[in-house]
Amino acid sequence: MTGRAPEPHALIGAYAMDALDRAAAGRFERHLARCGECASELAGLRETTARLSAAAAVPPPARLRGRVLAASGHTAQRRAESRWPSPARGGGRSITVAAALVAAVAVIAVLVVVAIRPAGPAPGGPAAGRRAGLAIAAVLTAPDARMLDVRLRTRGRATVIMSARAAALIFTASGLAALPRARGYELWLVGPGRDRPAGMLPRPRHGMTAPVVAAGLRPGDRLGLTVEPSGGSGRPTSAMLLLVTL
Amino acid sequence: MVVMETVSGRRSPPRHRVAGGASLAGLLARTARGDQDAFAAAYDQAAPALYGTVLAVIRDPFLAEEVTQEVFLEIWRTAARYDQDRGSALAWMATIAHRRAVDRVRSEQRAADRDRRAATHAVAYDEVAESAEHNLERERVRRCLKWLTELQREAVTLAYYRGRTYREVAALLGIPAGTVSTRMRDGLIRLRDCLGAAR
């Protein structure tokens, strides 16, 4: 995952400055979802664009302050906590997979936005959030979508939603052991041939990791998880914490 | 590969924190809990940067005012999403502001309209240089922009201060889009390094 930057990676500067048209932004976001180092590079570039912003400072009209504060008085806030499902509820034997999937759509659509916008939010209007949703909608809406709830060998549990038809899966985890800064969790597709890296998990927030979409599933693949240097490894260098038959 | 390593952006957020950034983060945390006074204080700190950014992209003061209001309401609603570990508060807020401004111009301006304005593109950089407000940050950024190659500077300022896509910048400058995207990335990295060193 390290090494030569693939083609979409060159767009990271343009992406940081909102200088991609929709199609290119979608392509870049798919890359971002699979690129372990991109989130931190993007965050670094956005610190720089913030300096460009500060350099453009102009005092706003005085009346704007009163308007903003008055409007905030009757605007409801979103609670961060409500976006995270309770890990304690895991298992979910009493609900059907279909119902769980419906719930997962809502949760994951929000989570993916978080994953894709490391510097922050997807402001309501823009299409970015919808695009991010579309990237996983293929999995969630596939007629053969299945949800698996599995325990890790060490601690924590993972939820996997996968579709053979979409040849992709969505992975989230909760309660994972904290890792030092220099290390991260890496997903693998373990097939008959070489183990293929399937993306680094983002750093957990509130004990949960935002979803990772792994594409390129092949028949017979299993899903693995290991601890690797935070830049990712080309092949697993530690024991599988998880090996799920899909 | 070696070249990529030298330009690739290793993250070092605290270096680039603007003055007051830490307390701005604290204000956002309180804003997330519904604290209106904290929100007002955050407005006072960030509004000039955000309004100035929106105005640079949108060009129309009345529309810029409207969009800035939307930006702050977005900040109010979603303050709980801001995560200090992932960047400075101003970066988070400026990202919201810039994206909203860009979305607005792209949805409202016809391509032809934008092309007519293309002739004025050289103004983007001059404006940073000459604007009436002479704050320290502007001086630093202006100095560091000079340190970029001409192409890097054009690519960065047209994208950030004019809301141009990299393809539009490529058409304006008459160079391949791939080159422009690369210059945007290495231009930002060079700017980051210069600004970091200047702190």
Task: Write a structural description.
With 246 residues, chain A is of the alpha+beta class. Chain A has helices at residues 12-16, 22-34, 38-55, 62-73, 97-116, 127-140; strands at 146-151, 157-163, 168-174, 183-190, 196-200, 212-215, 222-229, 242-245. In chain A, strand 2 (157-163) and strand 3 form a beta hairpin. Residues 1-6, 81-97 and 117-125 of chain A have low confidence and may be disordered. Chain B has 199 residues and is mainly alpha-helical. In chain B, helix 2 (21-32) packs across helix 3 (36-58) and helix 10 (166-173) crosses helix 11 (177-198). Chain B is globular. The chains are: A alpha+beta (246), B mainly alpha (199). At the A-B interface, helix 1, helix 3 and helix 4 of A face helix 3, helix 4, helix 5, helix 8 and helix 9 of B.
* Number of strand segments of chain B: 0
For the secondary structure, the number of strands of chain A is 8
Give the termini separation of chain B.
29 Å
Helix content of chain A: 25-40%
Provide mean pLDDT of chain A, rounded: 76
- Which blocks of ≥5 consecutive residues of chain B have pLDDT under 50? 1-22, 119-123
Order of helices and strands of chain B: HHHHHHHHHHH
Rg estimate of chain A, integer Å = 19 Å
Principal-axes geometry of chain B comes out as globular
What profile does the largest beta sheet of chain B have?
A: none
| Tally of helical segments of chain A | 6
Computed structural class of chain B:
mainly alpha
